[in-house]
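Hi everyone,

Forwarding the result from last night's run.
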Amino acid sequence: MPFARITLRKGKSREYLAALADGVYQAMVDAFAVPPKDRFQAIHQLEAHELIYDRHYLAGPRSDDFVLIAITTGRPRTAEMKQAFYRCLADTLAKSPGIRPEDVMVVVSTSQWEDWSFGNGLAQMLEKATT
């Protein structure tokens, strides 16, 4: 049930954006124990002056191809799972659409089951846990 917000500068092709979204999803399935078909993503494209980041803080050098991936997930993952996911994601995105690992930043946040509604005014995950 993770939700991924993918933020980058405007100007990439539809194919690039599809490869980026597909790569994020595939890395979550491969290394983050996300079930297939559990795909919820939003791509935010910003003007250059709207995406502000340090080109060298704790990694880098970052280029104009910098991408910020913020993932909100329901159940916590271990530190080992997160590290494996970060590596898998960087490798996957390097292959397609060709993003340098230095340009991939990830933030993972966790939430509780009652924080999610998948529609119909219900907290499906909370109800699933009590049945």
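The beta strands are 3-9, 41-46, 67-73, 104-110.

Cheers,
N.
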